[in-house]
Every structure is written in structure tokens, then in C-alpha cells.
Fold this protein.
Amino acid sequence: GLAMQLPSLDQSGYSALHLYVVRLNLEQLKKSRKEIFHELVALGIGVNVHYIPIHTQPYYRKNGFEGRSFQTSEWYYDGALTLPLYATLTEADQDFVIEAVKKVLV
């Protein structure tokens, strides 16, 4: 299988493309998202994670969600990784990110 799933556009709508979140297929990889994240940062890639499941936020934990499990949101979070996306991102920058991701996912 593929190590990573790219976002796709639904033809019935459009996206503002303010984030570029890929899904790491952790079952296919020998690394955790955390390891991949830190390896990309070490290569100079400004990755991020969007978004932490709301039921794990302090306010919600204090208000009845402590110890609750929401498997789909937790599964999504475990494999989500946000790659750089901004208006001035050049094709050379994109190539740099792509090569770094390829290197880290092997």
C-alpha cells in the first residue's frame, strides 16, 4: 500500500487550500507520526499537526470527556501531518518538501 494519502478535491465544491494535510498510513510505515514529524523538522521542513481532537482539550476533559474515546478522530489525528502551504511557496520549495518527505518515509 501507499505510505501516504494526499488530499483530494471533491468536484462538487472547492477548497480554500489553507492547509495541506496528508494522511500517513502508519500501518505501512515503520515510524510513528512523531518520528516523521521530527525528522522533517530536522531537514528544515515546517510541518505541523492539525488538529488535536477536541475531546482531548482541557476544557472538554474537565466537562465530561475525560477518559472518553472517539476512535475515528483519534485515528485521524494519529496519521495527520500538515505540510507547508503558503502563497509564496515556489516550485523549488515544493520539490524540496517532496524530496524530504520521500527520504523520511523510506
